[in-house]
Amino acid sequence: MNINFTLIAQAIAFAVLIWFTVKFVWPPLLKAIETRQKEIADGLAAAQEGRSALEVAAKKSDATLNEAKQKASEIIGQAEKRAAQIIDEAKGNAKAEGERIIAGAKAEIDQEVNRAKEGLRAQVSTLAVAGAEKILRKEIDAKAHSEMLSKLAAEL
Amino acid sequence: MTTEHTQQAEHALTPSSYIQHHLGFNAQSVGDTSFWTLHVDTLAMSVILGLVVMGLVWLVARGATSGVPSKGQAFVELVFGFIDDQVKNIFHGDRHKFIAPTALTVFLWVFAMNAMDFLPVDIFAKGIHALGFEHWRAVPTSDINTTFALALAVWFLMIFFSIKAKGLGGWIHELFCAPFGSAKFFKPKSFLGFVGLVLSPLLFVANFAFNLIEYVSKPLSHSLRLFGNMYAGEVIFLLLGLWAATGVTGAIAGAILGAGWSIFHILIVALQAFIFMMLTVVYLAMAHESH
Predict the structure, then answer these.
(1) What is the domain extent for residue B111?
(2) What is the CA B36 to chain-centroid distance, rounded?
(3) What is the pLDDT of residue B6?
(4) Chain A: residue nearest B80 by CA?
């Protein structure tokens, strides 16, 4: 237990070591650790932010999807309606056209019938005259009857 | 703790002279009186250890990155975090300016100095003899000068921070008026109040006596606790070495017990370094608090 000059020397060594640590050892370590802590905290905050942003985006996309679906079904409904309308229109048109064609055909047929009737009528008189001529040639003397025929012709 | 009994036998040494021989300092006189003696071994060992330990930490700190740390940096940061947590719990000021780095220095340096106790005493002594030294103490903290130097340095820092935090007047006021308080000097209204006023200077005496005891006991307990533990550890290693010198049975028993004591001593070395560091922090933190 002899206290001597060693005590002073050791105290100086201690002071120098403390100074060295305060000046050169502690600050860089503290800086490195605090920077890392800050980076980790920032990273966690960014991750949290990203998560909430993802949630918002998912909600938005859901809403957009629903809207698109609604619009699509609306468009399909409209298209169906329009198609039905077109079909109805076409049906009407076709019916009118058919009726028109039928009416035309009927008119033509009537015309033909009339024309045939006319033709027949003409032919009937000729045939009647020819038949009468044949009969008359056999029984009638042309002279005897020429007066009557002339009379008839005069009446015509 | 291994046997050196052949050499001891040659010198015909008794057990007490063996121990005395091992506990002798490499003392060099640097002046006229006995105070002017320098323990070269203590100083050299502590300075070398301080340079090695703090130098290694400095090397790591210099290249410290805030990114992914290397294994060395991770270890240093582990120690850093441990010390920083302890200081944070005790001291509530700006610890990074002085107290925490001081705690780191104290812990690592004292730990390294204590750890010299693990050097096998006789093998180490042989090496020292080969270098031409008669005496060489390996453990600087088993020299009262080292522990007392550290404790006294802390003691002066304590007074310095106390005055810095409270002012010289505040510090002197606290010397006389804390912890028991002081009497208020109003006009006494009753006889008992008058007696109290007359007796109140006794409070100053009591406060001052209390503070004086505290200021004397702090560095003493601080330094002697570490010194006692390390000195006792060293003596037990020497006693085991002595036993090993008695023969085969003693050598085996000494080796087994020596190994056991070494393992237990790991705890003491770390614990005493930790206690010394904690007391340093507590004393310095207390200096910042006013009563």
Answers:
(1) 5-288
(2) 22
(3) 47
(4) A29
